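Service request form, structural biology core

Requester: graduate student, group of Dr. S.
Request type: structure prediction, single chain
Budget code: on file
Notes: please return the result as structure tokens.

Sequence provided:
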Amino acid sequence: MTLAADDFARHLAACPLVAVLRGITPGEVAEVGAALIAAGIRILEVPLNSPEPFESIARLSALAGDQALVGAGTVLDVASVERVAAAGGRLVVSPATDAAVIAATIALDMASLPGFFTPSEAFAAIAAGAHGLKFFPAEAGSPAVIRALKAVLPRDVPVLAVGGMTPEGVAAWAAAGADGFGLGASLYRPGTSAEAAGAMAARFVAALTSASAITPSGAITPSRD
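Core staff response, request fulfilled:
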């Protein structure tokens, strides 16, 4: 099995979108997950404040195989990291920077994507070994903040904008240097059908395809077309 960090980089390069399935249940996760993968999304997370999240992670991981990277969001402590690994998850996403959570994630060969909002938090996460950074909540900032951060952060550490993303809004963030996007309530919320989630995922994929291009370095830049 390849390292989770390598799979994270590979799937992010293929499609720089992360589906955040907050509130999903085990009974619907396979159908919704299949629709999202069919639409092109390659990274999916089940936040741990969802109903029976570890069961959903196990079912989604079994469905995805090597087509997508599956993990957990809202991971707040080391014990939860261990349960994510036991369920078959290979990605740990957090709303904050916690060095102990990052270290436990790396020790269990999972990809680490902690949240940050300030440069100090970003560099602390990088020092702890994070494989990527989640700029959260993005709606409290602006694309200009991402542009300034990207000027000082290591080029090989992807920065994902998470919070308040829409198909119409991702182009501005991409132009500012965001390497990817976390899609929450705009993509899925409790009660959203698999068909509707898949259709919205396709809209996001199309928006990025038309408004941006992936450079060899993995950064998203405005299209010249």
